[in-house]
Q: What sequence folds into this?
């Protein structure tokens, strides 16, 4: 009688009931999907900024196991004012309350004039000496040039190596003790005379020059190679 009752209890508890597994397999997010969300966020920001950018996709560990998000991933770049270098993008799944930082390598590149050949101090820049290349912004350490015509005829103040960006501080359109043309006057009248530069100057900079005839020292603006303009 006890055996019959035991069998009946077994049928009551297990008949038609699926077994419950100790652990069930959970669908996980593909690392590529997380990486793509971070890239898309950076691409959207750089599309609104000036210049040209290159974005290097991150390499996420394939062993990463995060539950698949039932909603689109939310992305953000907290606490940053720069889109150059390594940018940490915060990717999060709000419904499941998980988040991960994804590092994205971002390079801002601009067209800049570089030395096509080593340029020693005192040399005069010609068209054959320079070239225009796409240069990462982080390599630039000062004011530079995008048009070679801005440098042709200027003098090198300090040696520039092959491939280096030519900076405004590396050259002078008018150099100290150079013979210069002094253009003086206003919109209606212009007088041109010869003089001597008393200091170095780049395009648009004010320098002192001495008039060869009157020996008078005046201040003018560098307007071209070997040329200073004085406005009255």
A:
């Amino acid at each position: 009688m006890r055996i019959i009752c035991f069998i009946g209890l077994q049928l009551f508890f297990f008949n038609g009931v699926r077994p419950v597994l100790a652990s069930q397999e959970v669908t996980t997010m593909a690392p590529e999907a997380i990486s793509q969300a971070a890239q898309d966020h950076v691409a959207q920001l750089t599309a609104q900024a000036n210049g040209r950018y290159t974005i290097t996709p991150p390499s996420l560990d394939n062993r990463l196991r995060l539950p698949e998000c039932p909603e689109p991933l939310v992305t953000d770049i907290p606490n940053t004012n720069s889109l150059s270098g390594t940018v940490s993008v915060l990717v999060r799944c709000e419904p499941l309350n998980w988040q991960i930082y994804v590092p994205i390598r971002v390079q801002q590149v601009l067209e800049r004039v570089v030395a096509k050949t080593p340029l020693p101090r005192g040399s005069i820049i010609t068209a054959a000496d320079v070239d225009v290349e796409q240069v990462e912004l982080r390599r630039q350490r000062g004011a530079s040039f995008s048009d070679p015509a801005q440098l042709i005829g200027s003098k090198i103040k300090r040696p520039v190596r092959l491939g280096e960006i030519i900076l405004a501080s590396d050259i002078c359109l008018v150099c100290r003790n150079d013979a210069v043309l002094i253009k003086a006057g206003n919109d209606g009248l212009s007088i041109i005379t010869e003089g001597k530069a008393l200091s170095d100057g780049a395009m648009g900079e004010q320098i002192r020059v001495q008039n060869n005839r009157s020996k008078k020292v005046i201040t003018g603006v560098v307007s071209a190679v070997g040329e200073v303009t004085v406005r009255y």
Summary: The chain is about 15% helix and 35% strand. The longest strand covers residues 98-115. Residues 31-108 form one domain. The first helix runs from residue 2 to 14.
